[in-house]
Write a structure and sequence with these properties.
Largest sheet: 2 strands, parallel
Oligomer: single chain
Number of strands: 2
Distance between the termini: 34 Å
Strand order of the largest sheet: 1-2
Number of domains: 1
């Protein structure tokens, strides 16, 4: 296991706990469940050694981008609002950039 100090782990987990308090402010619909993901840039070997607990799933950046592109490819006929510029950019990349689905 990757060793995190107790304070580091608490600080990391606190970010997820604090975010939960704001879900209803951000989303105008009722959430049944929320999957917590820590997006990291470590190697696959290091990834398998990290455990933040609290049902926080650790995901590498390329894996996360792949999840987004796969999901967006299901909704290519829909336009993502301008308020979500990163998602729009990824949608355009999938549609026009020759990214395999």
């Amino acid at each position: 296991m990757l060793t995190l100090g107790l304070n580091e782990k608490r600080r990391f987990v606190k970010k997820f706990e604090d975010a939960k308090k704001h879900y209803q402010e951000i989303f105008d619909f009722q959430l049944k469940t929320v999957e917590c993901k820590a997006i990291v840039g470590f190697s696959q070997k290091t990834l398998n050694q990290i455990d933040f607990g609290n049902d926080i799933h650790v995901v590498l950046v390329p894996q996360f981008i792949q999840e987004i592109t796969q999901e967006l490819s299901r909704y290519m006929q829909m336009t993502i609002p301008e308020g979500y510029p990163l998602l729009r950019a990824i949608q355009f990349a999938v549609a026009y950039g020759g990214v395999s689905r």
